[in-house]
Amino acid sequence: MSPVEYVSGEQNGPQRIDIENITNANKCDFCSAQCCSYITQQVDTPTTMQEFDVLLWQIAHKNIHVFKDGNGWYLLSMTRCTQLLDDNRCGIYDTRPLICREHTTSACEFDVPIDQGCDMYFQHYAEFDAYCRKRFKTWDKRIEKFEAARAKEAAKEAYKK
Ligand code: SF4
Ligand code: SF4
Fold first, then answer.
1. Please, what is the average pLDDT of the chain?
2. For a substitution probing ligand 1, which of 39, 108, 111 has the most ligand atoms within 8 Å of its CB?
3. How buried is residue 52: exposed, middle or buried, by Cβ count under 10 Å (0-12/13-18/19+)?
4. What pLDDT is recorded for position 6?
5. Given a cut of 80, is residue 10 above it in pLDDT?
6. What is the pTM of this model?
7. pLDDT at 4
8. Which residue has the higher pLDDT, 9 or 118?
9. Does residue 35 line the site of ligand 1, with CB under 6 A?
């Protein structure tokens, strides 16, 4: 699996980091606001081929990832918060949403990238397609089956006319 790609802000140049000087209190100074660079949304646990096919369609879109952890399955959208300032600080810090207030610097994304600590993490269409192929022996046949059923339905409709 390739390392997860964060979308950087316009002004984020490379930074020199002395690891020994980083603490929970100052680590945001060295970070490109990784925790403000994506959103997640839990989805119903997929079980059928059709449900996995929907996730495959979703991950086919730019910056959409899929992961599963101990709590279930999630869609992840790699998109930076519009309230981030060019220096990676929050532009609405005093009125930021509750979920941002709950987030702490201890064991945050700076220490553990989001693709680590999940049971499974899929960043690209091909990775997820390969997983589905392994999970369902008839994965590739689903399209054939779908088209055959549709042709049958169309033939039935044509016969009625
Ligand atoms: S809380 Fe962690 S991930 Fe978020 S900006 Fe600070 S160091 Fe980066
Ligand atoms: S509102 Fe502020 S703290 Fe919350 S995600 Fe956006 S920039 Fe980050």
1. 91
2. 108
3. buried
4. 58
5. no
6. 0.84
7. 64
8. 118
9. yes
CA of 108 to the centre of ligand 2 (A): 14
To the nearest 10°, the Cα dihedral for 106, 110, 114, 116? -80
- Domain edges within the chain: 19-136
CA of 79 to the centre of ligand 2 (A): 12
Pair of tokens at residue 154? 């169309």
What confidence tier does 68 reach under pLDDT thresholds 50, 70, 90? very high
Are the CB atoms for 55 and 63 separated by under 8 Å?
no
Q: Is the CB of 105 under 6 A from ligand 1?
A: yes
pLDDT of 130 over the 90 cut:
yes
Q: Tell me how far the alpha carbon of residue 105 lies from the centroid of ligand 1, in angstroms.
A: 6
Rounded to an integer, what distance in angstroms lies between the CA atom of residue 34 and that of residue 155? Answer: 54
